[in-house]
From TrEMBL:
CDD domains: ABC_TM1139_LivF_branched (cd03224)
Organism: Ideonella lacteola
One Pfam family here: ABC_tran
Residues annotated as domain ABC transporter: 7-247
Record-linked InterPro entries: AAA+_ATPase, ABC_transporter-like_ATP-bd, BCAA_Transport_ATP-bd_LivF, P-loop_NTPase
Keywords per UniProt: Amino-acid transport, ATP-binding, Cell membrane, Membrane, Nucleotide-binding, Transport
GO MF entries: ATP binding
Protein name: ABC transporter ATP-binding protein
KW Ligase (keyword) present: no
Length: 248
């Protein structure tokens, strides 16, 4: 891929509580305007890679002890999440936490406060979210706690989009959702990428769905990148099919 890289991770090693091994030298590059998938089993290091890039390790007593993380050509290792959001790098954590008693729209508006935005920019972001997730305007005034799991995932992604990011780090959006709902969410991610130019790094155990929309995939195992390639090349490999795509 000849597009310049928006996020570059070079040989990072991550420790939690001073204990080595969470990441043992992970490198990957996410080209501008692409979708990259981070695949692998439970505990392989997908979430840790996203947290390293989004400034979220500190809260879990994790630390990048080696390597380099660059966003848009600048070193970002150690920067806190709010400064990254201000530069256009947003994240959606695993588990889609919503404020249950606030309305869907209030949950979205909270995301706009992380980056200085004018009223026009907020309106534009909200319109885009409602276009890409047409379920949300239908329930915008009801409490987020009453929304389905899929709708809550849409709210979580929407909240990140309120800062009009250039890149979103998205952790396990399919978790606990029915396949049809997962398809809807992944279709929306693809539209955000293709129509709106948002770059994504997507961590997923559901490799089949992730590779369907991703340009590239990186397979992690035990804190290392086991293999990487274009989605079509990975999907054609027998070992990948057997271990990650549920085929035999
Ligand atoms: P999952 O899908 O379960 O989130 P993952 O591929 O995202 O899996 P990570 O959560 O990144 O994997 O975990 C990588 C390694 O780091 C694992 O060995 C895990 O036990 C360890 N780890 C993750 N978070 C912490 C933490 N807060 N404290 C200590 N160790 C952690």
């Amino acid at each position: 891929d000849l597009r310049p890289s928006l996020l570059t991770i070079e040989s990072i090693e991550v420790v939690y509580h001073g204990v080595i091994g969470a990441l043992r030298g992970v490198s990957l590059a996410v080209p501008r305007h692409s979708i990259a998938a981070l695949l692998g089993a439970n505990g392989a290091g997908k979430s840790t890679t996203l947290k390293a890039a989004s400034g979220l390790l500190a809260g879990e007593r994790g630390e990048v002890i080696k390597g380099r993380i660059a966003y848009d050509g600048e070193d970002i290792a150690g920067l806190p999440p709010h400064l990254l959001v201000q530069r256009g790098l947003a994240q959606v954590l695993e588990g889609r936490r919503c404020f249950a008693s606030l309305s869907v729209e209030e949950n979205l508006l909270i995301g706009g406060h992380l980056r200085h935005r004018t009223a026009t920019q907020l309106r534009r972001a909200l319109d885009l979210i409602y276009t890409r997730f047409p379920r949300l305007p239908l329930i915008r005034r009801s409490a987020a706690g009453l929304a389905s799991g899929g709708e809550q995932q849409m709210i979580a992604i929407g909240r990140a989009l309120m800062s009009e990011p250039r890149m979103v780090l998205l952790d396990e959006p399919s978790m606990g959702l029915a396949p049809i709902v997962v398809s809807d969410i992944f279709d929306a991610v693809r539209a955000l990428n293709q129509q709106d130019g948002v770059t994504f790094l997507l961590a997923e155990q559901n490799a089949t769905q992730a590779l369907r929309i991703a340009d590239h995939g990186h397979v992690l195992e035990n804190g290392r990148v086991l293999s990487h390639g274009t989605s079509s090349a990975l999907m054609a490999r027998d070992d990948i099919k057997r271990f990650y795509l549920g085929e035999s």
